[in-house]
Design goal:
Elements: H1 11-17, H2 24-27, E1 33-36, E2 43-44, E3 47-48, H3 52-61, E4 65-70, H4 77-86, E5 96-98, H5 99-112, E6 120-124, H6 127-135, E7 147-152, H7 160-171, E8 175-178, E9 184-187, E10 190-193, H8 195-206, E11 211-212, H9 218-228, E12 235-239, H10 242-251, E13 256-259, H11 266-271, E14 278-280, H12 283-297
Parallel strand pairs: 1-4, 1-12, 4-5, 6-7, 7-8, 8-11, 12-13, 13-14
Antiparallel strand pairs: 2-3, 9-10
Helix pairs in contact: 3-12, 5-6, 7-8
The chain binds magnesium ion.
Residues 37, 39-41, 239-241, 262 line the site of magnesium ion (MG).
Length: 298
């Protein structure tokens, strides 16, 4: 049995770890684009995972398009680029698509097309969300009674006053929107509270359930594929969390690869219904699978 402490498993082991319907040779050569979750796939917190640049280089070398698609709304694309650079991974800001951007773009479009009323946004979140909302042309307010929308993303320094303002806004009729549903996220110390936990507190306080834009919701994947000009059947989603990365992508008809470097363990991936098309220990193993599959068809 493979463990993710072995970064370069022999292929025979790799194949034995991929117990699901299709062997990688059956469909990896037809993959034209790759969506990569970030935390738990490229790194865990501030700890880089092995083989990321090699994997991206192989995608580039084989003419495959790729985009990092993250539910993490705390950082701007430029901040993610910087973080990856410290880990020796080169990804320009255009290669990063966060749930903050997806949420801001979606809300701006709803207002522009008349499907939602014009109005200001009170936000609970960090720089990534603030920049995304402003970049999308939305107007921010700190006044809970002046807000038409209450938008919530990850916030690592949240206070009781923040929760109070958002609760008042939602109770006053502001539409409650969350960037992503993740209740936790991995760190060097273990699982820490994520945006979904903030949303749960606000839902309890306001007695209103949020509308959530990020993975596993279709809007996030569809926008990412739109940016890459690619179709679901030829786009593989690589993720560590079944219920967001994998379940959402499968619903849209995308092939999926579950990696064991983050949240969901091998047992839970295998038990999921439906399971990911591939289960691999890490990106080096997925790179091996791509290489082998491409070799067999070349
Ligand atoms: Mg993840």
């Amino acid at each position: 049995m493979l463990t993710h402490s072995d970064p370069n498993p022999p292929l025979s082991n790799l194949q034995s770890s991929i117990l699901n319907s299709q062997p990688p040779s059956a469909n990896l050569p037809s993959i034209r684009a790759v969506l990569l979750d970030m935390d738990g796939v490229l790194y865990v917190g501030d700890r880089p995972l092995p083989g990321v640049q090699d994997f991206l280089d192989y995608l580039d070398a084989t003419g495959r398009r790729w985009l990092c698609v993250t539910n993490n709304a705390s950082k701007t694309p430029a901040m993610f680029t910087e973080k990856l650079a410290t880990m020796g991974v080169h990804a320009s800001p255009e290669r990063i698509f966060s749930s903050a951007q997806a949420t801001a773009m979606w809300l701006a479009e709803q207002i522009q097309t008349g499907q939602a009323r014009p109005g200001k946004v009170i936000m609970l979140g960090m720089e990534g969300l603030r920049c995304a909302l402003l970049d999308a042309g939305l107007e921010l307010t700190d006044d809970p009674f002046d807000a038409a929308y209450a938008v919530v993303g990850a916030h690592f320094h949240v206070t009781y006053d923040d929760f109070a303002d958002l609760t008042l806004a939602i109770r006053n009729g502001a539409r409650f929107i969350g960037t992503n549903p993740d209740t936790s996220f991995p760190s060097e110390r273990g699982l820490l509270p994520g945006t979904g936990s903030l949303l749960a507190l606000l839902a309890a306080a306001s007695e209103v359930e949020p509308l959530i834009i990020g993975k596993p919701n279709a809007a996030m994947f569809e926008e990412a594929m739109h940016l890459l000009h690619t179709q679901p059947a030829e786009t593989i989603m690589v993720g560590d969390r079944y219920e967001t990365d994998i379940a959402g992508a499968i619903k849209l008809g995308m092939p999926t690869a579950g990696v064991l470097t983050g949240i969901t363990n091998e047992t839970d991936f295998r038990a999921a219904d439906p399971p990911p098309a591939l289960i691999v220990p890490d990106l080096p193993a997925l790179l091996d699978a791509f290489r082998e599959a491409d070799k067999m068809t070349s």
